[in-house]
Amino acid sequence: MHRSTVAAEKLKATQQQMGLPELKLKQDCPTRWNSTFYMLRRFLDNKDAIITTLVLLSARLETLTQDEWKEMEEASEVLKPFEEVTVEISGESYVTASKVILLSRSLQKISARYLRSGGPIMDMLEKMNKDMATRFHKSSNRQEQQQQQHHHHKKRRKAYCGVISMNKLQVF
């Protein structure tokens, strides 16, 4: 629909007739976070208008099967929490590492739950889980090391203050 002005105009007219908002379809862009989610949502929200437009245009394209539509719906459901976390993190000017780790672990648990349930989007989920484990494991380890260093310095400072107090008592 992006390459054909005739198809784009026909989609717009179909959306008007169906009482849908006149929205262009979105394309996935690998450098834009959440673009796959937004593309799938827009496509799913306009499913009937797209099917009708293709029929009206007598397009010689293979139409999507019900299973393929279901797969798109499932992928959209899986990607929704990622979109929400991205919006949450992007909306703040300063995000703490602990918040990022907490949110990333939540995403890992959510995707693992979908992975256990099976379904047609298993390949996508497995790749996402592998990528998250690689990326978030590093940041999680880094924060744990920082916390250990902080506690170590805190103990040393407390011990040092205790020695100073003892020295003061010995003076009197």
TrEMBL record:
GO cellular component: nucleus
GO terms, molecular function: zinc ion binding
Region (Disordered): 136-158
Alphabetically ordered keywords of this record: Metal-binding, Nucleus, Zinc, Zinc-finger
Stretches assigned to coiled coil: none
Keyword Nucleus: yes
Source organism, top-level taxon: Eukaryota
Family annotation (PANTHER family): ZINC FINGER BED DOMAIN-CONTAINING PROTEIN 39 (PTHR46481:SF10), ZINC FINGER BED DOMAIN-CONTAINING PROTEIN 4 (PTHR46481)
Protein name: Zinc finger BED domain-containing protein 1-like
Organism name: Triplophysa rosa
